[in-house]
Write a structure and sequence with these properties.
The chain is about 75% helix and about 0% strand.
Length: about 375
């Protein structure tokens, strides 16, 4: 169990890193699309993992799964070591400032070392982002103390917990009802995973379209390829106008999945509902994640880490109670209960929709007063 915790801490850190890189490379006007693309890798895990794991377990035994993970993580490490550039705005600014030698990818020393030398004086050092505060190991937890961020994080965790309750019980339900082996069970995860992957294109474009629409309504002009500040822009309205309808659609899909699994329907019924559950639930969670990154652009990795922390904790709890709950009241009523919690909890998002912009302005004014008082 200790080794699995270490494995989890390493793999989950890449999610926060990926969100931070997307925040560095994209503007808010196009961030929904790029975070959606970055999330495809996360969606591939629940899609391909059960299939690959089922094949390995069936033919080579369960230990082969861990050898596969060693090889896969080793390949990923080599690719990152060779090709991954530094994007942190506090280090390279808008990308024109050369990073320190220890902060460069390996290919920079072998192929194009001149790219990291400012011989022509084109580096714009004014774009280097100044950190507002020192690094804090509990900064992810501190984000939850803010009214707006706390509500979004907690509700996002609740939504993810319902998703995990479906995923974690799927294998046992398929085995008990259809008598499937590990390979057949793994293949049944594909519809849900494909829905999750498809959501990345759907929700990314919806978020960017609604951002452009809201800028017109709120009288703000989008400057292409420029990171615009949102002190006077209601980003909460732009993001949650997409999130909230998706949450209600996801709740309906979860209810439908539960009841088609409750009764002796043919296999295509549950598989179709798994596809739409993956599509809508992942889309809704992705919009909330984008909002958290938007609000905390200068600490995107911390915001992503906070999101991971809360959703994984609540997801683990949902995994523990899902099977006993199904045994007690049946999968149909369990799905109805999960969807009911999502609908009731969405009131938190309506509060953010109405008050989040004002709360963010109040917090910014409070921090500015502290900064003015500390400046001699």
């Amino acid at each position: 169990m200790i080794l699995r915790c270490i494995q989890s801490s390493g793999s989950s850190g890449t999610v926060a890193l990926g969100s931070a890189v997307m925040a560095d490379l994209s503007t808010r006007a196009e961030r929904g699309k790029y975070i959606g693309y970055a999330g495809i890798g996360i969606a591939l895990g629940p899609t391909m993992g059960p299939v690959i794991g089922g094949l390995l377990d069936h033919y080579l035994g369960w230990r082969s799964i861990f050898w596969f993970l060693v090889i896969l993580s080793g390949v990923c490490f080599v690719v990152i070591f060779i090709a991954f550039p530094e994007t942190c705005r506090a280090v390279v600014g808008n990308g024109s400032v050369p990073p320190a030698s220890w902060n460069r990818p390996f290919w920079a020393f072998c192929v194009r070392p001149s790219r990291f030398c400012d011989e022509q004086g084109t580096a714009d050092y004014t774009t280097i982002q100044q950190l507002k505060r020192r690094p804090n190991p509990i900064s992810a937890l501190l984000l939850a103390t803010q009214k707006e961020t706390g509500l979004v994080l907690i509700y996002g965790a609740l939504l993810y917990a319902g998703y995990m309750a479906v995923i974690s019980t799927l294998s046992t339900r398929l085995t008990s009802r259809f008598g499937f082996n590990s390979i057949q069970v793994g293949l049944c995860y594909l519809p849900m995973g494909m829905g999750s992957i498809r959501s990345r294109w759907l929700v990314g474009r919806l978020l960017d379209w609604n951002f452009r629409r809201e800028t017109r309504l709120q009288g703000m002009t989008i400057q292409k390829n420029r990171q615009q500040e949102i002190e006077n822009f209601n980003i909460e309205r732009a993001r949650l106008a997409i999130s909230i309808p998706l949450i209600y659609f996801a709740s309906l899909c979860i209810i439908a999945y539960g009841w088609v699994m409750q009764y002796p329907t043919a296999l295509p019924g549950p598989l179709v509902m798994l596809f739409f559950t993956g599509l809508t639930t992942t889309s809704a969670f992705n919009t909330l994640h984008t909002l958290v990154v938007d609000i905390h652009y200068q600490s995107a990795a911390t915001a992503a880490a906070a999101s991971n922390l809360f959703r994984c904790l609540l997801g683990a709890g949902a995994t523990a109670v899902a099977s006993p709950l199904i045994g007690a009241i049946g999968i149909g009523w369990t799905a109805t209960f999960i969807a009911g919690l999502s609908v009731l909890g969405s009131s938190a998002l309506w509060i953010v929709f109405q008050q989040g912009y004002r709360w963010r302005q109040e917090l910014a004014n409070k921090e500015q007063r502290k900064l003015d008082q500390s400046t001699p």
